[in-house]
Amino acid sequence: MLLATIRDVAKLAGVSVATVSRVLNKNGYVNKETEQKVITAIQQLQYEPNAVARGLAGKRTGTIALILPDISNPFFPEMARGVEDVAHQLGYTVILCNSDDHGVKERSYIEVLKKKYIDGIIFASNTLDETDVEEMQKNDLPLVILDRAPIQDTFSVVRSKNYEGAQLAVKHLLEVGCKRIAHIYGPQEFLTAKERMTGYEDAVRHLPWYSPSLMVPGNFRIDGGMKAIEQLLSRHPDVDGIFAGNDLMAVGALKALYRLGKKVPEEVAICGFDGIALTEITEPEITTVAQPIYEMGSLAAKVLIEKITATVKANPIHELEVSLIRRGSTKRGRETDE
Amino acid sequence: MLLATIRDVAKLAGVSVATVSRVLNKNGYVNKETEQKVITAIQQLQYEPNAVARGLAGKRTGTIALILPDISNPFFPEMARGVEDVAHQLGYTVILCNSDDHGVKERSYIEVLKKKYIDGIIFASNTLDETDVEEMQKNDLPLVILDRAPIQDTFSVVRSKNYEGAQLAVKHLLEVGCKRIAHIYGPQEFLTAKERMTGYEDAVRHLPWYSPSLMVPGNFRIDGGMKAIEQLLSRHPDVDGIFAGNDLMAVGALKALYRLGKKVPEEVAICGFDGIALTEITEPEITTVAQPIYEMGSLAAKVLIEKITATVKANPIHELEVSLIRRGSTKRGRETDE
DNA sequence: CTCTCATGTGTAACCGGTTACACATTTGGT
DNA sequence: ACCAAATGTGTAACCGGTTACACATGAGAG
Fold it and tell me: How far apart are CA B69 and CA B55, in angstroms?
């Protein structure tokens, strides 16, 4: 059975295709009675407008793209879910792209996406630079970027309070009685990693025990957290609190400490950052500064679709709150607990 | 700057659009010299064929859809990654859909996807029934289904050996000295859960200690695993081996046992199923029967795209091997270890 | 009693490709 | 030398929508 076209509907309703199109898109003038005839014809034929033809004629495909480093990194599925939920709700469809934070791959995706008349892109990937952004701007492709600084007002940004979150983490570790708090920082090409590190530094630099060597690098992955702990403990065996730049490294830290026979939280307390589900499956569960990951995704989608449909182009910056989730990895006697 | 069209290229090369199209699609006869002129013109204009127009004219959009229950369920990101990698490599784009295993949502996605001239669908979601499949067949939408029985030869199936895997798990638990092995089974509407349960039953039913009450239901999630353990241990305090129907429930079992003060693996050994990354972050790490999750995704994409491009429609059934990954949760003295 | 403007509808061009068909011109087999 | 098949290329219809523009009607303003 072949699908009905707008011309079939027009014929059956005894009107022109233009009128049918007006009914469909609710624009232009249409007489109430005429409209009813058209609606009846549409129902009779079970007519569904062809999205591809629509895309070609109207330059709108109802499709957005989500470019992220790697969907199998546990941070992103929840964000992707947020994006997809909102998009679906608003009648959009989401294309998934894994860039591996690799500029070439990212650009090749953008090429394809432009050819497909994508309506907009959400970038949760970190590679593209100013030039790329300008390039997009020229094609006036609406753009929302996650975890970037709002350097330009030409694109919208969704991020959360990394600096404040880091301070929250340190403050909490101090409260539970830590006397020497180290930080495992992420790759400095990520703004998030940088900001969290600065937050840590500003929170501890005035304290008597502070030393720059308490900061060790990690790669934002589990193995990076493990290596960091080995390195750290050989340098500072007396460390009793760890603020990891993200949750995966916190998991790694926990693992490494366990293998070294250090008790968590009794001997060393750990606090992560991100609030991914993984932090609830370890034993003890890991205290973390949670970003509203799902909301970051859903908000990004909302903002993007607003940009797509809006006539005036605003480029708001959304900075979301983070919150400390206290769990076993920092639970000590001295804490006045709930 | 407006993008060049095929007519611009034709004009510049001094040929007709048909010829340009022939060069583009490498079909029909084209003289070598003519071809060269066209190629030069394409490069000069930086011409990129418009995918939407192509879709409208040729009924091929180079887009496939992946319908899964929930991308934030840790089983699926890796599979999605497999799908996307292959798709991207073969020049296809992937649309992501979360069905929540909800029939209505699934069908609403299918509606939209048909309108968008999607080339094919990979189903990792379990809701659609015979009628739906036939419906797809009528629209001759290529289909690949994961984890379904090969009841019909009208669609392709990718699955792995659940029954054999379950037997593998039980055999391993016996080998490490378990004397009484329980099974936490998943929701029986999932074929996978059913097959794993049958595998377990067939492996233990002849053993002296066997009792049907050693099988307790779980929901394939962490909390389900925890509840199952509580229920199980009150019924059979002497259980010393757990075969969980999937890894999430194995994680839950581990958590619950830890809280009840049972030592893993010394007092109770645990084996999961799936091979998701989560099993490596707990302490001890969890032994599991690993499915080749990434490969299931990449194979599904390969099969689907083959179906899309092939003229003759075969509907192969691919049943992948599973493998036991031995980890801490079943490591006991008596095991002859590597 | 005109004139203007809001309302209502149809025609046909257009979006940017693919491809059926027509029309050469070679090639090669007998 | 003759004719069928292979090679090469162009014209124009088509995919299924959107929309600019033309045209008609009726109402309210001056």
Answer: 28
CB-CB neighbours of B266 under 10 Å: 11
B112 to A63: CB separation less than 8 angstroms, yes or no = no
Tell me the CA–C1' distance in angstroms for A96 and C23. Answer: 47
Q: Which residues pair with B146 in a beta bridge?
A: B158
Nearest to A289 by CA among A138, A203, A167: A167
If you ran DSSP here, which 8-state letter would residue B280 be given? G
- Cα A13 to Cα A148, A294, B207: the distances in Å are 52, 46, 73
Nearest-CA distance A63 → chain B (Å): 9
Per-residue pLDDT of A228-279, as tens digits, reads 999 999 999 999 999 999 999 999 999 999 999 999 999 999 999 999 999 9
pLDDT of A335 reads 45
User: Does residue A100 contact residue A130 with C-beta atoms inside 8 Å?
Assistant: no
Do the Cβ atoms of B17 and B6 come closer than 8 Å?
yes
Q: Which residue is nearest to nucleotide D6 (CA to C1')?
A: B29
- Mean pLDDT lowest for which of B58-72, B116-130, B136-150, B243-257? B136-150
Chain A partners of B77 at a C-beta cutoff of 8 Å? 71-72, 74, 76-77
**Cβ neighbours of A72 in B, within 8 Å:** 77-78, 80-81, 277
Chain B CB contacts of A281 under 8 Å are 222, 251, 255, 278, 281-282
pLDDT at A58: 85
- Six-digit token string for B13: 């090369």
With contacts defined as CB-CB under 8 Å, which chain A residues touch B93? 95, 112-113, 116
DSSP B59-91: S--SEEEEEES-TTSTTHHHHHHHHHHHHHHTT
Q: Tell me the pLDDT tens digit for each residue of B103-131.
A: 899 999 999 999 999 999 999 988 777 77
Query: Do B76 and A80 count as a contact with CB atoms less than 8 A apart?
Result: no
Report the run of H or E that residue B251 belongs to, with start and end. helix B247-259
Q: In what order do the strands lie in the sheet with B181-185?
A: B215-217, B181-185, B241-244, B269-274, B287-290, B323-325
Q: State the pLDDT at residue B132.
A: 74
List domains and CATH numbers for chain A.
6-49 (1.10.260.40), 63-160+293-321 (3.40.50.2300), 162-291+324-330 (3.40.50.2300)
Query: Does residue B191 contact residue B158 with C-beta atoms inside 8 Å?
Result: no
User: A17 beta carbon < 7 A from strand C?
Assistant: yes
Q: What is the DSSP string of B150-184?
A: ---SSSEEEEE-HHHHHHHHHHHHHHTT-SSEEEE
- CB–CB contact A74 B76 (8 Å): no
Q: Is B98's CB within 8 Å of A81's CB?
A: yes
Site of tokens 């199952």: B228
3-state DSSP: chain A helix, strand, coil percent, rounded to 5?
45, 15, 40
CA-CA distance, A151 to A136, in Å (whole number)?
A: 16
Distances (CA, A) of B32 to B14, B36, B37, B59, B96: 15, 6, 9, 29, 42
Q: What is the pLDDT of residues B75-102, one digit of tens each?
A: 999 999 999 999 999 999 999 999 999 9
Is A51 in contact with B277 (Cβ distance < 8 A)? no
